Amino acid sequence: MLKVLKSGFFVTIQDLGRFGYRDIGVPISGAMDVLSVKKANLLLENDPNAAAMEITMTGPTLQFDEPTYICLSGAHISATLNNQPIENYHVVKVDKGDILSYGRLDDGFRGYLAIKGGFQTDVVLGSRSQFVPVTKKKRLKDGDEVKYGKMLSYSPIISEVKIEEHFHKNYLEVYKGPEFSILSDAQLTEIFTKTFTVSKENNRMAYQLSETIAGHSHSMLTSGTLPGTVQFTPAGKLIVLMKDGQTTGGYPRVLQLSEDSICTLAQKKSGDKLTFKLV
Amino acid sequence: MKSYPITIKPFGERAVLIEWPNKVEESILADILDFMDAFKQRKIQGWEMSVAYNSLTMVYNEDHLDFEEVKKLILDCYAEQVSPAIKRKRHLWTIPVCYDLEFGIDIEEVSKTLGLSIEELIHQHTSHQYVVYGIGFLPGFMYLGGLPTSLEIPRRAEPRLAVAKGSVGLAAKQTGIYPQDSPGGWNIIGNCPVTLFDPNAKEPCFVKVGDKIQFEKISKAEYELHKIEGEVGIYKPEKVALDA
């Protein structure tokens, strides 16, 4: 078991997501920054879908009760193992009683803790990703214990790599969304020349952008939405749906983020600046 | 012969959106469901499909997709006749609702605004069959069509931060049930004791798109009974097969 001594701001268990239930309104969920979690699982030679801990903004304090191997990726949150700093993309051996803790957020917004074999929490509707009401709990709390398999010794093929983080871009690559054509020339100019700021309303469901563009009065029937769908409200607000986002919506879907850009956005926090770039 | 012009649009790297004419009609929904049956018949792994009114979102989980290739596949399937044997079965569900003031927290206000007595309002709400045009927004939330115009009422000016699970609401041309506690701006007229989304059930959501719903007025005592029966797993709402 991995004991959560202190839970941090928002820590959840995530794998690649829950597929096959969008027809009954269940969002995909899964790691917000799939690229980061995949890299850590790759170094641990895990299944790409192995469940990892997604750590938002501030980190937890965790204690291991069995030896195993871990690998960190994503945001840099000054992680230490028994007070010794550890870096992203290093396979690190941990022993019984070891304490992993986090400090200042230096880079990005969501860090990942991957573990050899993945966390063994319950699978509900094909996934371990935490999302209420599919899973009972929304996030990890103080005192929770998370199951993992013991691993006494293992020699990784590659034990560390230097990686230039993929999320330093300050632009999002987008495709035209289903209602792209409702944008006027003036709105198009605004959307592709303005710099947008991530607002305080940002979470696993959606990221709202602070700046608005000229609004619209286009009304449409509710239709499907995806992670990365950019909704355009009548008042001119842009809302980017993320991994826990609703499966249907009634606002025009003017843009659609590339999957890599969803990972970029997942590492942005309130106040960060972005532009849109059509691919 | 298919009678609808359909539009197929790319939707990001792994999805396409198919749109039927921009109308809420049972015949359009039936055509979408036929197309889905024809597509499923091909047993191509990795696709997820979700319907909402006049559109179908198709997501391919395996890989990025080649739009032109997928478009051709969709048009081929759309041209195909669906044999009755593989057509999905549709049902009419009787869904119990307790309209007591304790649950129907807005029912008095709604009755005043609509100029209907509470009794008449309940009568109208329970005497129509509503078509399930989609499931989305929240797990197990049904988009129902067919509300009589006499029950159309605007959304509340200020949405509530918390609407109780099971709440039955009215908003514009829609009526629906909140499957979980959720923020919401609908006018609440009652509560339904049936769990509409249960992730641990064999079928997490027993209602399917294309089914119909009819509400049935129940007393507080019946409500409590159904609630307990539901918790121990011995209560299921009544259904009858609809012959398409």
Automatic annotation (TrEMBL), chain A:
Residues 23-279 form the Carboxyltransferase domain. Signal peptide: none annotated. InterPro entries: CT_A_B (IPR003778), Cyclophilin-like_dom_sf (IPR029000), PxpC (IPR052708). Keywords: ATP-binding, Hydrolase, Nucleotide-binding. One of its GO terms (molecular function) is hydrolase activity. It comes from the Bacteria. Gene3D superfamilies: Cyclophilin-like (2.40.100.10). Coiled coil: none annotated. This is Biotin-dependent carboxyltransferase family protein. It comes from Flagellimonas hadalis.
Automatic annotation (TrEMBL), chain B:
SMART domains: AHS1. This is 5-oxoprolinase subunit PxpB. The keyword ATP-binding applies. It comes from the Bacteria. GO terms for molecular function: 5-oxoprolinase (ATP-hydrolyzing) activity; ATP binding. It is an enzyme of class 3 (hydrolase). InterPro entries: CT_C_D, Cyclophilin-like_dom_sf, PxpB. SUPFAM superfamilies: Cyclophilin-like (SSF50891), PH0987 N-terminal domain-like (SSF160467). Keywords: ATP-binding, Hydrolase, Nucleotide-binding. PANTHER family: 5-OXOPROLINASE SUBUNIT B. It holds the Pfam family CT_C_D. It comes from Flagellimonas hadalis. Its EC number is 3.5.2.9. The keyword Transmembrane does not apply. Residues 6-207 form the Carboxyltransferase domain.
